[in-house]
Amino acid sequence: MNELDSSQRVLRLRKLPGRITRPREVAKLLGEALGIVSEHIIIYSLATTYDRWENPPSKMATLQLMSVPECMQQNPRGQQWEVPLPGAPGGTLILDAHFEGWTVLNDVEPSKHRTDCIAISGLASHPFGSWQTRGGDKSYMWLRDEIPISVPGVRALLYGYNSALVGGSSFQTISDIALGFIKQLEGGGWNLDSSKPIVFLAHSLGGLVLKEALVQVADRVESVASILDNVQGAIMFGVPSLGMQQSHLMAMVEGQGNDTLVQDLSRHNGTSYLRQLNKSFEGISFTRSVRILWAYETKESRTVVQQSDGTWERNGPPVVLVNPDSATCRYNRKNKAITIPINEDHSNMVKFSRGDLNLGPVLSCLRELCFPHQDPSNPVSSPHVDVMPRSSGGASASAIRPSHRTSNEVGDAIERDYQMMREFDNLWSSLEKLQTDLDSPALNFRIDQIEDPFQDTFQWIFNLPVFCNWLQQGSGLFWIHGKPGSGKSTLMKFIYESPRTWELLHDWKSNAIEIKGSFFFHYRGTAIQKSFEGVLRSLILQILSPHCKQFRNQHEATLKNFRKLAIEKHSLEEEVSRYNTKALKLSAELASLKTGQEQDDSKEKVRRKRIKLDDEGAHPDVRESFGGEAQKEIVKLETDYRGVCHELRHLEILIETVDKEVSQCAARYFPHSKASRTMLLTDIVTHFRDRAYGLIPKLERMLRRLLHQDLISMDLILFFDALDEFEGHLDMISSFIKDLVDKTPSSATRVKVCLSSRPWKTLETHFSTYLNFSLQDYTKPDLESYAATSLAQLGKGNSAFFELIPLIIARANGVFLWARLAVREMVDIVSTGMDIVSRRQLEEKLRRLPDDLFEFYRLIIERISLPTRRRTFALLELLVHESDPPSAADHVRQAVLTADCATFQAAREVLECDGRNAGARKVGEREFNDMSVWGGGLVEIKSNYPQLMHQTVLEFVTGLSFKRIVLGDLAAIVSENGHSFHLKYHIVTWNLPALFTGPEMRHRMELQDKIAHHAAQSELTTGNSHLEFLDSVPLGYLRSITCVDYLLPINKDALLLFVISKGLSLCLRDWIAANPGELARRNLLSDTACLPLLGSLPFSPANGKFCDAHLRIARMLLEGGYRMAQDPGFFAAVLKKLSLPRTTQHPTITESALLELAALVLEYGQDPNVTISVFANGVTTECSALHVAPPCLAADLIQRGANTSARDSGGRTPLDWALSRHFELSGTGARYLECARRYEMCKILLNTQPPSRHQQSRMAWRKALDEFDQKGYDTQALREKLGPEGTTRWQISWLRWLGRR
Fold first, then answer.
1. What is the pLDDT of residues 503-529, one digit of tens each?
2. Distance (Å, rounded) from C-alpha 1207 to C-alpha 1209?
3. Which candidate, 612, 207, 139, 182, places its Cα nearest to that of 353?
4. Cβ neighbours for 1147, distance < 8 A, ≥ 6 positions apart
5. Contacting residues for 623 by C-beta, under 8 A, at least 6 apart
6. What gap in Å lies between CA 43 and CA 62, rounded to an integer?
7. Which SS3 state, helix, strand or coil, does residue 1148 take?
8. Which residues contact 701 (CB under 8 A, 6 or more apart)?
9. Which residue has the higher pLDDT, 1297 or 1153?
10. How many CB atoms lie within 10 A of CB 919?
11. Is the pLDDT of residue 409 over 70?
12. At 37, is the secondary structure helix, strand, or coil?
């Protein structure tokens, strides 16, 4: 074997068995596979693969070989080698040097895994080597070796793609590379809710790929766009956002397919593309709160020059490849805080060595992006947490713990009854939570969208012996396969919903519960509609449904009665506790008075009082009366004590009555407590509560329990449609479905599955051995019926049409949709000249049509003239981004006409011109004609509402390549989408206000909601502001749409109010940039404070719910110079909402958002001592902010100067309010919540300013402390704050306390 030199590259090893856990094991296994000694193999990293569908997951490693194995000697220029896995016949290890795709560099414990860090390399760079220093030492690579140590909890990954320049045969563009990257992110599961947040590290071209990818996914279907929800931030290293010096690179790619990619990087040729890309990317990252940091080089780079031997060397003239302006999008001039200067050239700026001075700041920035925690001293920095007592204090029936009951007072039988009923209540509550957590309207969305069969088609399925026999007597799997558009989904829905399916399945002799379930995969839908998680959730819910329904029907009345009794019992026990406390104190006081055991200070007070009376010459009776007060008090205390004992006996009788009724409930439930159904549900709930597993493993365990249970006989039939649309590895989902029908010997659940899919090779491998048929083999009569009926309606008796039916059927090959498109093609041809078109011409036309539906759609688009395609794009985008209720055909047509208009006036002129040219055409004629031309037949009008002709058209239009197919090169610079077009149209066609009532008013409100929806979504999905268009809209229109026409005069403030009310943060950003200092210079609302800018955000948000965009707008207003004096009622309104019990707070905004807003305005100068008017207990009270503030905000108020001794209009301080048990801001009130809040306020106020004895009465403190004790709060700290006597003063008698006064 030849020895390798020290500069040998690092290699990647994949497909290692999951059992491998140590580098030594890797070296031993690979050495055996390669035939070299393990000592010649250096393992640098070992990590689990990214492939979430691999089961069990394999591992990958990075390594170096110190000797050359035979496989490399035979192929020295190779980039990948496959070697047999020792001890595993058929197994293979993959060794490569290209590092393309994903490379995981380290593992993180699941409980500590916080973030994924993905590194994307630049142009003509190696995915691994570009991050590693040049030279012979390959033992250090900072992403792999530094991040796990310096930023724990982060998993580092590399994404590799082919970006070679010299000799490159690829003609891919930045958009193409980005498309591949998106697919890889989807495959890695970063579009799922369960995935970890992502922070990107992108170098050079890699940053443009990242930008293009995020811009593309922002405007796609939710299942793809959800990737953006997981993006937390990025560090861009030398990314040429505004172009780069690339003339030397053009020489390298001259005449090659990749010259277009290099041209796009030019500071001149690529400017329009790069600037539009940067504009969209910045807008998207801004609206989605993605933090971007920009690193730039500060050294010149050597350019590459071709040598005499034809090779290229980096020894040309030095230049600045990416200048600071381009690398930072000019933030180096306007916001240096988000820029990072790196004193290296373009290539070496990411090649950090051990101890590199540039590495520390980069790692620090990476930590900030991965863990964006706020200052812990800020009370809003962490979510609000209720103050929970040490013992139960609420009225939850499931948490009953009778505090006064002992085994002597209550028999064991009663205790067992309560325990059983508590378990019953817990089971019921857990089942409700399970239903809430797992269910989603999206799970049933797909089946509801599938069209019903055409006339009497598909009736043959119930005359097909192989299928009917399987339904009646068969078992296992039945596979229905067919081409796209052949009607598989329509057939599956027909089978699933047909009553004849139940008739064939039903066995009257069987006692088994018959359950029918389904999952219709939907690739164009949300992640849950096509993921394994969605399958598990749906199946569990459907299998449990009949059991839960019967369980509820049997026991709902019993549970309601028990919960009512439990609340009553809790109330009685609170009264018992209160009377017990009172009785104990009375008893202690009586004992103290009768035995004369008084404290020294009390005796001294009595002695001094008598001496004073003697000195004053008081009558002896007066002196004696003072000494006899104790006897009078004893009589009074004894009377009170007897009264308390009487109340206790009465309460005990009531409790015994409740106990008896609870026992009756338990007696009704007891026969069912150990029933099979109850035991099964209890078992499922136990798995559901188990927190030791992640969501997917937990759901898997629950489903396995349902399938393998031996308690209840169940016959389960499951229908899976469009298995090929599963988002994940097909081998995995196929194995899962096969496992469903593998019944264990002890299981009482019998399962059979009917599934449909395209006949892909992978699926055929799994399911071809089961009963199956090809759908297109049986649909010929249906196609003939469809074609004949359609041609008869359209052909007007032309015999040429009917002669084409056999050819159409043959070419369609069972695909209904293809036949439909082909018929339409024939009609279009003949309609231009029915008498002169020959049959041969029609046949030739049919033969030229593509077989693949997507290619068919592409052909349809390509036939549309180039000038018309802008309207094609607008039409299809409008339909894809339609909102409820949908727009009528004439509205959609007009929206297409105004789509390209840049101003309001231009759009109005287009509509006015269109109105003049309307002529006397029939209603709907223009809409039909224009949409036929623009849509090329892909759009149809039904009941005056346009829609896409088929689900596959929607899939085509929402595909990542659709925009480029329609617009070609213009796709790179067209930034608007369907939301943008809807927004412009609805504004342009808005009617100025009149006195609307009834339906007209509801219609206006619907339009306002649509405008708000499309405005917000346009910013989110395009990253572009509409300020230029909005600035051209007459102010009266904006005022009317904003619903403030009765408050605001028509002036330039209308634009700003519209932008803020609709939550348009990009527009506001651009407005502030165009009007620097304007917010600070003028009072926007003059004397009209009824509609303040900030106040309209939390309580009247445009989309019905306060979101991140509104909070961002509030911060932007304050940062831009908006003064809180311009919004005097805002802070008071926020505090009022916060002071209410959670059940009565405003539905449009959460408590955490209110807290963030309150902290924000305090940060920007809000007076913490503002006066607030509150209405409580029928009285209006003037008070300070500290009086009503929740505990988590009170500390911030005090820190910013709130007066802790401020008094309300009744003379009470904030501490008085905290001590007052009965004060509530709501008549329906959470007493337990109020107690928790008051306890925390007492702690905060005492820590800040311990009160003097003259501020709050001892009685108030005693009552408050008693209540806190009863609720289980720790009052020791409060007692210590009250002084040296605080720990004992509440145990002394009330009489002695009066004596000290």
1. 999 888 888 899 999 999 987 667 788
2. 7
3. 139
4. none
5. 610, 613, 614
6. 6
7. coil
8. 687, 690, 693
9. 1153
10. 7
11. no
12. coil
